[in-house]
Amino acid sequence: MKKWKVCLIVLSVLVIGIGLSGCKKKQSSDEVQRYAWPLGTSSPEDTVTQIYAEKFADEVSRLSNGKMKIEVYPNSTLGGDRELLESCKDGDIPFVVQNTAPQVTFLPDTAVFDLPSAFDTIEEARKAVDNPAFYQKMEKVYEKGGYKLLGYADQGFRVMSTNKEIKDIGDFKGQKIRTMENPYHLEFWKDLGANPTPMTFSEVYIGLQQGTIDAQENPYEVIVSSKLYEQQDYVVETNHLPHYISLIVSDEFFKDLPEDQQKIITQAAETAKEYAREKSDERIEDRIKTIKDSGTKIIKLSSRTRKQIREAASDIYKEIEDDVSKDLVDAYLKNAEK
């Protein structure tokens, strides 16, 4: 299925005369690129992921005076998260923009991003991934897996929506909350006394509507785009995990490019990262307004409750330190203010 989708895209490009046959051929610095390198995402168009990808593609074109071209394919056109990672590693789809959560299967050290309630603000979280000591370690993690890391943007924090007012850690008890099928995520909610329930995302709205689940957790953008707030009385700013979005490229593909083109890609990625973060902040403010206008209340947790949550999840820190490495965890948490 993966190869079929990729071949279909390649065929369509050939039909309009661009031609992808030279994708892996080393190109001289002065040669005009006569094909568009594909960039795949599994996210819909109206997302920060798409903004990040499009800004990166635009910057690559601008900095190269139109000699380098990237075509963005959103909405799983080239495959889902797993297929995109496999195709990127093989070099069939050179560029991918995606959330870090699906990467744990391929890159176990990315579990470091599952450390719950590590940061009080998204600015702290951004400093953590930009910290050179940590970033260089993660570059090696991706390189070992066959990728080159180009940066992390985000969609802010993941937050909880529910029909129960949350004031204290005891209020989480017994709530059936939908989560991703990630062992660290499941354990986090169990530590809070909730009843985590893995569920396909497409079933979440109906699950909330029919009472199969009481709650769910996602970034504000997803809660609004999927209208989940319509079925919930409260959005609780648990801010338990930053929703990082990574930009990666096939390491083999990148190393085969001329040095000046590598510099253009690196510079474009940095600009796109900062732009996506700014847009994320703007969009979160807009999403919060949409939720408030609907009558759904937003709850900000007290520092006392946040501390209780962190203490309840302390065992996850020990597990991740054992599964990843204490050095990586320490580098990630270096600037966390606790």
Q: How would you portray this structure in words?
A:
The protein has 338 residues and is α/β, with parallel strands linked by helices. Helices cover 46% and strands 19% of the residues. It has 13 helices and nine strands. The chain has helices at residues 2-15, 48-63, 81-90, 122-130, 132-145, 183-191, 204-210, 220-225, 251-255, 259-294, 303-312, 314-323, 326-333, and strands at 37-40, 70-73, 95-99, 147-162, 176-179, 195-198, 215-219, 234-250, 297-300. Strands 1, 2, 3, 4, 5, 6, 7, 8 and 9 form a nine-stranded mixed sheet that branches. β5, α6 (183-191) and β6 (195-198) form a beta-alpha-beta unit. α2 packs antiparallel against α10 (259-294). Mean pLDDT is 91; it is low at 10-24.
Largest sheet descriptor: 9 strands, mixed
Mean pLDDT, all residues: 91
Q: Would you count the extended β strands for me? A: 9
Rg of Cα set: 21 Å
Helix content range of the residues, please?
Answer: 40-55%
Q: Any low-confidence stretches, pLDDT <50, length ≥5?
A: 10-24
Give the oligomeric state.
single chain
Brief description of this entry?
Helix content is 46%, strand content 19%.
Defining key terms:
globular, nine-stranded mixed beta sheet, single chain, 338 residues, 46% helix, alpha/beta, 13 helices
Summarize the topology.
Blueprint: H1 2-15, E1 37-40, H2 48-63, E2 70-73, H3 81-90, E3 95-99, H4 122-130, H5 132-145, E4 147-162, E5 176-179, H6 183-191, E6 195-198, H7 204-210, E7 215-219, H8 220-225, E8 234-250, H9 251-255, H10 259-294, E9 297-300, H11 303-312, H12 314-323, H13 326-333
Parallel strand pairs: 1-2, 1-3, 5-6, 5-7, 8-9
Antiparallel strand pairs: 3-8, 4-7, 4-8
Helix pairs in contact: 2-10
